[in-house]
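Readers of this paper often ask what the protein records in our data store actually look like. Nothing more is needed to write down the fold, since each code stands for a local backbone conformation. Below, we set out a record of this kind in full and without editing:
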Amino acid sequence: MIESFQHPTVSKIRHSKETELGNGQAVPCEDVFTELLARIEERTARVGIIGLGYVGLPLAHTFSRRGFPVLGFDIDAAKVDRLNHGKSYIGHISDDAVRDMKSCGFEATSQFERLEEVDAVLICVPTPLTETRDPDLSFVLNSVEAVAAHPRHGRLVVLESTTYPGTTREVVLPILERDGLRVGQDFFLAFSPEREDPGNPSFSAPNIPKVVGGIEPRSLELAAQLYSRGMTTVVRVSSPEVAEACKILENTYRAVNIALVNELKILYDRMGINIWEVIEAAKTKPFGFQPFYPGPGLGGHCIPIDPFYLTWVARKYGLNTRFIELAGEINTAMPAYVVARIGDALNERGKAIRGSKITLLGMAYKKDVDDSRESPGLELLTLLLHKGAIVHYNDPHIPRLPRTRRHPHLDMTSQELTPEYLRTRDCVVIVTDHSAYDWEQIVRHAPLIVDTRNATRGVPDGEGRVIRA
């Protein structure tokens, strides 16, 4: 956790109309906006990024490549050490990319007192849920406390972590103004939601439009100018609340539509209709339809979590978001549905789940990435273990399962998929359809396959080994 404390220079910042801007020169307060804007335009503004994960590290890479000096902050000393030695820990950011960043002046640190060195702070930390599905803003709060404890006059602060509308104004702003500083005069504050899509070859941080909302006009201008030098398109909106609501809308839209096709999958399965063939037919309509696909549940740090931030804040306003909550219930129930289908498939072959040797293919939450956060595979693994199955997994991108808060007991390594190994399994469950898998070999050698992704479409299955779920 990041410790916060009262910094002795806070009162000095508000003491006079002249103050140091970080370069040893005394600059009138009314000129700090112009000074920071000039630094951004000249690309001499030092950018600090708190949180060097799947959002923060690509952002650091983007600004480093655009000529900005970047200082990255993370509480994980192991990550900091790897980056400073030119090594990456994220699949789509290569070691060469990290070395290029370092050659451009990038540095990583776990010393948060060095926040005094940066002109702009971009906060990219997790916003998980508690066990009761309430927002957990502890990572955001700790980060903002660190920023407040290490002030730099005329600094821009941008929250990128996905959260409920009102967080920037109601939670972040009071902390930054707590010691007498004023937004728009002593510092600047905005919200700009991250839109990373790991593993997407077409879109990455530089070419994904960046939505920006400032607390006041000068904050918006500075944030927009900074991002416009890293991203091809900046979309200005009228307030942080609009920017916060925009991100929640994007992910809720996906969650609701995925819930719809998941529910239809269950219905169509009982009717003997292939849901994937239905979707393929429906998407030939050139208007009014966008395809979404069913699966074993939702994964990743966004879609399974963000809609619940909205349902939580809605209760504060006396409203129940029944549609969103129903979608959450459907998606959350999908791993149990898949386990039931596994049980039915084994039962038809005279076997029970208890004692059966089951291997899960793909523990990443989506295709061709190394991120297992909130992966439905973790839930499937836990459910099957509780039912007494002997469970293994294989994932070419995740050689060892990381421990998580929800699944601290899982300690496994990926098994090699040889024909001999596949033949020893009672059931193989396709959880994530990685491109690296040889589906023909899997269908040929595994005695039973439960396919939750339609990955085996087009593969000959003369012996009826594949069950879709």
Remarks:
- Confidence is low (pLDDT under 50) at residues 1-28.
- The chain is about 40% helix and 15% strand.
- The chain has two domains: 10-238, 258-468.
